[in-house]
Amino acid sequence: MRRIAVTGASSQLGVFLLPRLQAAGFGVDAYGRGAPSSPVEISPQVRWLRPGMDSSLSGADAVVSCGPLSLAAAMVSNSAGLRQVLAFSTTSVLSKANSPNRSESGQMAAIQADEDRLKSVCGNRGAGLLLLRPTLIYGCGLDRNISLLARIGKRTGFIPVAGKASGLRQPVHADDLAARAVGALGANDKIDIESPACGGSTLSYRAMVTEIAACFSGVRAVSLPP
């Protein structure tokens, strides 16, 4: 049975990814900061570990990074025999690279540096790297975008929208990303690809908020001046 190491296993991506990996017949080493201090076998296929406890990834031939790219790079650099690395980054590293907000542009520069290090490490190890940059991830209430807007609407009865709010969004469900990951891990060939990972709809921010509000009885989108 092939074993897959998953970092950020308790993230919204991990919530959907772990069941899909099990259903596909993979063994899973699930790394999460909330894991017990000693490895725990929670099923014949899944073992929970805390990052740093088994940095050599013994037994795993692939890594799926749903957490910090720096952690994935550190693990890959300490491991031999990896065939494939699949890492989730963000499209913001491209769209916000030149942001006038220094904090934001600095954060994107740091993510870009982590991407570059992971590429280098995978190249040195001879592992394929599928680097996916999702747009706006949602799916199980753990995101700070769509789920936050939904909570505001349910609590207050409205979701505020300032100005035209015409900027475009492409929400992507975390389970769709999990399905893409499992499909890639099942491929026979080593994959070296960088790609955005977008949802099926392109919406203005205003239209997205309106659709979120429509999911709940008595909730509406309210326009505010810029």
The shape is: globular
**Which sequence of strands runs across the widest sheet?**
3-4-2-1-5-6-7-12
Indicate the low-confidence ranges by residue numbers: none
Largest sheet: 8 strands, mixed
State the oligomer: single chain
- Structural class from helices and strands? alpha/beta
Portion of residues within helices: 25-40%
Q: Secondary-structure element sequence?
A: EHEEEEHEHHEEHEEEHEEHE
Topology, element by element:
Blueprint: E1 3-7, H1 12-23, E2 27-31, E3 40-41, E4 46-49, E5 60-65, H2 69-77, E6 84-88, H3 92-95, H4 102-125, E7 128-134, E8 136-138, H5 146-156, E9 158-162, E10 168-169, E11 171-173, H6 174-185, E12 193-197, E13 203-204, H7 205-214, E14 220-224
Parallel strand pairs: 1-2, 1-5, 2-4, 5-6, 6-7, 7-12, 8-11, 9-14
Antiparallel strand pairs: 3-4, 10-13
Helix pairs in contact: 1-6, 2-4
Detailed description of the structure:
The protein is α/β, with parallel strands linked by helices and 226 residues long. It has 7 helices and 14 strands. It has helices at residues 12-23, 69-77, 92-95, 102-125, 146-156, 174-185, 205-214, and strands at residues 3-7, 27-31, 40-41, 46-49, 60-65, 84-88, 128-134, 136-138, 158-162, 168-169, 171-173, 193-197, 203-204, 220-224. The strands form 4 sheets. Strands 3-4-2-1-5-6-7-12 form an 8-stranded mixed beta sheet, with helices on both faces. The model has no long low-confidence stretch (mean pLDDT 91).
